[in-house]
Structure formats: C-alpha cells, structure tokens
Design goal:
By secondary structure, the chain is an alpha/beta fold. The protein is built from twelve helices and nine strands. Helix 1 runs antiparallel to helix 2. The structure holds iron/sulfur cluster (SF4). Iron/sulfur cluster binds next to loops.
Length: 317
C-alpha cells in the first residue's frame, strides 16, 4: 500500500536547505527547514509503521480566480465564484490537523491572494505560529500589491506558478502573466522570503522547463526549488505522457549538478495512499469536505465530524 518517495532524498533536502539559508531571512530559513524535514520524517515513520498518516493539509481557500489559463483544473463557473472559505472552517481544519500532528499547510485556489483574503491569511498565520503555511499563487496580486505585513511573518512561504519563459508562459496563462510572475519573484526575493516555483510540463514547454538556462533564471530570482508535475487534463488525450515525464525524471536524477536550483518532481505516483513525501496529504475543500490525492470522492465534512473520524474512514478504504 505504501511507497517510499522515489525522488526526494535527504540530499535533495540538504541542497534545498542551503538555498533557503542563502536566499531567505534566517527566521524563514530555520522554520522552512524545520517543518519540511518534520514532514519528511513523519512520512517515513508512517511507511515504517504501515499506518497511513497524512503530513500535509492542502486547504482550498477559494475556487475563484480572475485568470483564464488554458486547461485550468477548475471549471470556469467555479472560478467566477470569488467566495472564500469560512474562517471557522479554516480554524477547525488547522486545529484538528495540529492535534493529529500535521503542521504543514498548503493554501491553494483558484487564486489565494486577494484584498479579501489578505487579512484572513495574516491572522491565520500569526495565530498558528507552530505551523508552516505555503501559499500557492499565480503572482498577479504580489506583482501589484506586494505581500504587505506577511513580509514580517516567518512561518509562511510561497509557491509561484511558472510554466516557462514569456512565450510559453503567456501562451498558457495569458498576455502579461509572465511579467507579473517575474515581478512577484523579485518582490519575494527582495523581501527575503523562502519561496518555490511550481511548473506544469506540457508538450509546448518541456524543453524550456528542464533547460539549465531556465533553471539559472530561477536561481537568479532567488527560487529555492522548482517543483515540476506533468500536465493532466480531464481529456486524457491531452495529458503529457507519463513515459516522457519519467524520462525527464531519470535525466534529472542522474544530472542533479546541472541544475543550480534543485528540481523536485511531483505527481509521479498513482498510488492513492502513497507515503511519497509529496503525496501524504489530505485536502480540505472550500466547504469543509475532506478528500485525498486526486480522488474526487469526499470522505466526510469537517463541519459535521472530527477530522480524526474522517481519517479513520480513509484508512479503512
Ligand atoms: S491562475 Fe491557476 S486557478 Fe487561475 S486560471 Fe490559471 S490555473 Fe486556473
């Protein structure tokens, strides 16, 4: 049932740690290193015990997003709904996760960052100092507004989506998107925040995403690691092939020194409850539904029962 991660080794973590220490405020660096290593060790302990313990809670803060990227994973009508998660659900899923030993939270959208979201985000992160939060963003808000008071909070980092240089990125994400993403990375670097990028590999950008030229560009931007995943579509014919993706992964594994920024490859496994370090997570949907991995099925709603009950249900299949 469980698989050890086939791609993130302690050496990868050490390289990432060095990048964080060089690029970020020392308090961000220490907290990022501590919580990521904790997550990694917790995953490995679970493999040894044979009992599935999620170590990350991915919280869908909103489905709203004003952009219109090609093949966005969120249907258009959901993206046009800018409502955000009820703060009571946010606090409940965080508190109950902490009680179960989960201290790493990835906040996703839609687009997480907006005027409406910033005060909620700030109070959530400040109130939960014994946790780490990673905010996934397309960079638009940061490019225009910066990160405000979050620059002074250290248990938060950012993951910026980037799908290549301007030509490839704007083809996928719309005109002007690359410039915003690039500016957002400058803001984060200059604020000495620990931050990552997330890139989705497609046929039109594969050459760029794995090139040392692009990787050097990321290093100069202050990026700590580049996470890559293969493109998947509701229409399987449009998927980026897993064979081609595996080939890239092998090349990366054998030539890590070529890439100034470590590349971490995710979404390799189809094993639902894999203890792969990137996969031992639960998802809290905007309305409190709890899911895992890529499965649409929800296992219960945190508004109705304790998270511990729902996790037992997942374990029992
Ligand atoms: S930025 Fe993200 S959520 Fe928004 S349209 Fe693009 S892929 Fe979808």
């Amino acid at each position: 049932m469980f698989k050890r991660s086939n791609h993130t080794s302690l050496r990868d973590f050490a390289r990432m740690g060095l990048m964080v220490a060089n690029n970020a405020d020392i308090r961000d660096a220490v907290l990022t290193a501590f919580f990521f290593v904790d997550h990694h060790l917790r995953s490995n302990r679970s493999i040894e015990s044979g009992v599935w313990h999620p170590s990350v809670n991915v919280i869908e803060m909103t489905y709203g997003c004003p952009r219109n990227c090609r093949e966005c994973y969120i249907p258009l009508e959901k993206r046009r709904d800018s409502s955000i998660m009820d703060p009571a659900i946010i606090e409940k899923t965080i508190t109950e996760s902490k009680n179960l030993g989960i201290s790493l939270f990835v906040l996703v959208g839609g687009e997480v960052l907006s005027e409406q979201m910033m005060p909620i985000l700030e109070s959530t992160v400040r109130f939960n100092k014994n946790c780490m939060f990673v905010v996934c963003t397309n960079g638009d808000y940061i490019a225009k507004q910066g990160i405000g008071a979050l620059a002074k909070v250290h248990n938060i980092s950012f993951s910026v989506s980037i799908d290549g240089f301007k030509e490839e990125h704007d083809f996928i994400r719309g005109h002007g998107s690359f410039d915003n993403t690039s500016k957002a990375m400058d803001v984060l670097r200059d604020s000495r925040k620990a931050f990552f990028v997330s890139s989705t590999v497609r046929n039109n950008n594969e050459a760029t995403l794995f090139s040392s030229e692009f990787n050097r560009f990321l290093k100069n931007k202050g990026v700590v690691y580049q996470g890559v995943q293969r493109f998947r579509s509701p229409n399987p014919e449009w998927d980026y092939s897993s064979e081609k993706f595996s080939d890239h992964v092998s090349i990366i594994k054998n030539n890590k020194g070529l890439y100034p920024v470590p590349i971490i490859h995710v979404h390799m496994s189809d094993d639902l409850l894999s203890q792969d370090t990137q996969f031992s997570y639960i998802i809290t949907g905007r309305d409190g539904d709890i899911r895992i991995g890529k499965v649409e099925k929800d296992y219960g709603n945190i508004k109705d029962e304790p998270l511990s009950n729902i996790i037992k249900r997942v374990r029992n299949g």
